[in-house]
Amino acid sequence: MALCEEKHIDQLYLIGKLEQSLAESYANVLHLDYGARVTIDPQTGNVYVYKRVPKGEPDPETGEYADFDEVDVTPKDTSRIAAQHAKAEINAIVRNAAREQIYEEFSGRIGDIITGTVLQSTPDFTIVKIREGVEAELPHFDLRRNPDERNERPQGERYMHNQRIKAIIVEVRDPNSTEPPVRGERSRPSIVISRTHPDLIKRLFELEVPEVYDGVVEVRSIARDPGVRSKVAVSSRDERLDPVGACVGPKGSRVRTVVSELRGERVDVVLWSDDPARCIASALSPAKVTRVIVDPDPASTYATVIVPDDQLSLAIGKEGQNARLAARLTGYHIDIKNESLASKVLESLPTQASKQASESEEDGAHRCEYVGPTGIRCRNMARPGSRFCGIHEKFQELSDIPVSDDPDSLI
User: Fold this and answer.
1) Lowest mean pLDDT: which of 222-236, 276-290, 347-361?
2) What pLDDT sits at residue 170?
């Protein structure tokens, strides 16, 4: 019974399963045609075996008996075969009961962050101890050899014995599932954790940034290249609070803690906007964007970004990483062009498209509203209290002066 207390298993459940297993074993050992019934005394541990003897007449259709008498046939010495069967059954019961308890406890915690200690690393997975009696698996299979498995370890990470790591729970295997099990599932922990899941960054910010945990700052989108670089778009429910500054922290202390936990993975925190053009421009940070032209079709997810000539390589990033992460972050297909190549395209754009492009970087209410003959809007800032800059404000005043039809008028 000490085993039940150690493994947190119901004593009556264990005894009941063991009685069923021993009944099958003794029926085979004693050659009992109609089976046996076994009872175990919980106090003394004594085993009693009863032979089932049919009484009455069998059913005329099935030939089976409905009633049985029981005769005590308990052997003096326990059979070796029965003892081995009982041992194997106890091990199976303990293992299945533990897996069922783990499933009940952790099946509702998928997506939660856990802190564990590395127990063992193999070429295919790492065993992480969550707490006493509960272990998790961090798989990092070679997907070329095992396409049905998964790889949840970021590029370049290695784990040492007794090292503490944080990870996200991504799966809890159901011991009673009828689906085909994965290779060696019964001998592997039932909890699967991940270090590559984008939600890991969100949970880390919740731990380090009180505003994110309280919901004042909201993580709107995450794009991640595990082990190399990530982009996180945030917004604030409080207009007076800077969400990017809250996540970065004083002198970068908060984001530096997250980067340290991710083993040096670069994390870019950018401002989210409901305006697709402004959101795309922020997502391409640290590159400076001249303008963003979004396809006016609501069903389209294509956008053209124009950057200065010296910002083109920075906007694209090494092997296209910056542009790729920005596309994942915003959900748009982004085409990046420099100003030299895009100048002819911009001149042929209609006025409305040019207006939308100009408003991507600054609010339209603060920009000069003058639109030239070619359809290009002025890029200067409007003067306070005016809709035009200092140059075009005079032009607008002249155009607003009424002209008299009287040839004798001085105007």
Assistant:
1) 347-361
2) 94
pLDDT (average), residues 239-267: 93
| Displacement of CA 177 from its chain's centroid (Å) | 23
Q: What phi and psi values does residue 137 have, to the nearest 5 degrees?
A: -115, 130
Cβ atoms 164, 94 nearer than 8 A: no
* Angle subtended at Cα 343 by Cα 304 and Cα 358, rounded to the nearest 5 degrees: 55
- Whether 25 contacts 86, CB under 8 Å: yes
Lowest mean pLDDT among 51-65, 71-85, 150-164, 235-249: 71-85
Given a contact cutoff of 8 angstroms between Cβ atoms, the answer to whether 27 and 36 are in contact is: yes
pLDDT of residue 336: 92
Section 384-394 average pLDDT: 74
- The closest of 124, 213, 112, 105 to 166, measured between CA atoms, is 112
- Pick 58 or 161 by higher pLDDT: 161
Q: Which of 324, 351, 378 represents a domain boundary (last residue)?
A: 351
Question: 12 with 85, same domain?
Answer: yes
Q: Which two tokens stand for residue 339?
A: 């100003």
- Report yes or no on 214 lying in a domain: no
The verdict on 6 and 81 lying in the same domain is yes
Domain-ending residue, one of 61, 91, 121? 91
pLDDT for 361 equals 43
The total of structural domains in the chain comes to: 4
Q: What CATH number is attached to the domain comprising 80?
A: 3.30.1480.10
Residue 29 lies in a domain: yes
Q: Would you give the DSSP letter of residue 297?
A: -
Structural domain boundaries enclosing 53? 2-91
Give yes or no for residue 355 having a pLDDT over 60: no
Nearest alpha-carbon partner for 398 in 385, 383, 407, 388: 388
Distance CA 211, CA 283 (A): 21
How crowded is residue 108: how many other Cβ atoms within 10 Å of its Cβ?
10
Is 207 a member of any domain? no
- In terms of Cα–Cα distance, which of 324, 129, 295 is closest to 225? 324
Q: The pTM is what? A: 0.69
Q: Are residues 148 and 71 in the same domain?
A: no
Q: 269: which strand partners?
A: 232
Residue whose pair of structure tokens reads 């001998």 in the numeric block: 187
Radius of gyration of the chain (CA): 36
Mean pLDDT confidence for 163-192: 82
User: What does the alpha-carbon distance between residue 360 and residue 171 come to, in Å, rounded to a whole number?
Assistant: 41
In the beta sheet, which residues pair with residue 134? 131
Structure token digits, residue 111: 């997506």
In the numeric block, which tokens belong to residue 123? 């070429």
